[in-house]
Design a protein that fits this description.
This protein is mostly helical. The protein has two domains: about 40 residues, no CATH class; about 80 residues, DNA polymerase, domain 1 (Orthogonal Bundle), CATH 1.10.150.320.
Amino acid sequence: MRLLRSLQERFGFTRNELTAVLVLSTIFLVGSAIKIWLPAVATRPSLPVFSYAALDSQFLALSRAPRDTASAPHRSAARKSTTTLVQQSIELNSATVDELQKLPGIGPAIAQRIVAYREEHGDFSEPGDVSNVRGIGPRTLERIRAYLVVRPRAQHAQP
């Protein structure tokens, strides 16, 4: 009781305020005791350790993939689903329409234009010559240049 009176005199608590402080202090002390006592009584099962290694390797693989494998936001959903990765270089002077469509950003119409241009004007002398085809601008050329190979016509028959 002396403690209560000294708190009341020292801090100027009213009787209701003093009651609230005592109730809150009691709740705090009981909660602290339960927090200490509970882990000693019941041991919790250990949680599985989460590893970021799998996510990191996935991210690393995606970041090393050529940028042109990601579809551009302006393409239609049907076009996004048909985009395939080019696994090897494509020989520009002997590629078919289907092979050319595997290049990023090249659809059936542009692939057909490349073949028609090649038939009309002859073989390409370098990969950059494909930019003469209508529909292939500097951006598209930069995306597909890494996949294009141009060989003289005599080497086409060799594997």
